[in-house]
Amino acid sequence: MAEKTIKELADEIGVSKTAIHKKVTPDMRNKFFSKIGNKFVISEEGQEAIKSTFIVSFSETENQKPETDNSKTKGTKSENTQTEPITKETKSKTTITSEVSENNLSDTAIKIIENYQKQLEQKDKQLSELHKLLDQQQQLTLHSNQQNELLQLQIKANENEKKEQPDSNKQYVKKKWWQIWK
C-alpha cells in the first residue's frame, strides 16, 4: 500500500472527501498527512486509522438498525458485536453496510442531482432574460446616440446660420474716424 490522496482513499472506502475531513482530527493530520506538491497524501498508517474510524462508524450503524427493528434481540446482538474485535468477518459486514449506505446515497444523490438540474434550468432562464435585457439596452443606447448626433448636427447648422445672418443684414459703410460721432 502506498501513500494515497484524500480523494483516492475516499473512493476506496466509499465515502466523500468531506466525510474524511470531518472524521480526521488535527492530531491525525499532523501525524499522517503530508503535502506533496499541491496534494495532501496520507501515509499507510493514516489510511488504516481512517479506515478503522469508518469501519467503527459503519458497524455502529449496522448495530443500530437491528436494535430498532427487532426489540427481542436487542440485548444479545448489541453485546456480541460491541465486544468482538475487528476481524475479517466484521470488515465484510461493514462492506455490506457500505453497499446499503451507497444505495441510500445514490437515492439522495439522485435527489440532489435533480435539484441541481432544476437550479440550472432556472439559471438558464435567468441568463436568457438577461441577454434579452442586454440587447434592449444596447438598442436603446444606439438609438440615443443617434439622436445625440442629430442634435449636435442641428446645433452646428444653427450656429452656422447665425454667423451668416449678421453678415448679410449689416452693410458696412466705411467711415472715417472723425465721422464716428455723427
UniProtKB/TrEMBL annotation:
Domain Regulator of chromosome segregation-like C-terminal: 118-156
InterPro entries, alphabetized: RocS-like_C
Comp. bias regions, Basic and acidic residues: 62-72
Source organism superkingdom: Bacteria
Signal peptide start-end: none
Coiled coil: 113-163
Keyword Coiled coil attributed: yes
Keyword DNA-binding: no
Keyword tags: Coiled coil
Chain positions covered by the region annotation Disordered: 58-98
Designated name of the protein: Regulator of chromosome segregation-like C-terminal domain-containing protein
Organism: Alkalibacterium gilvum
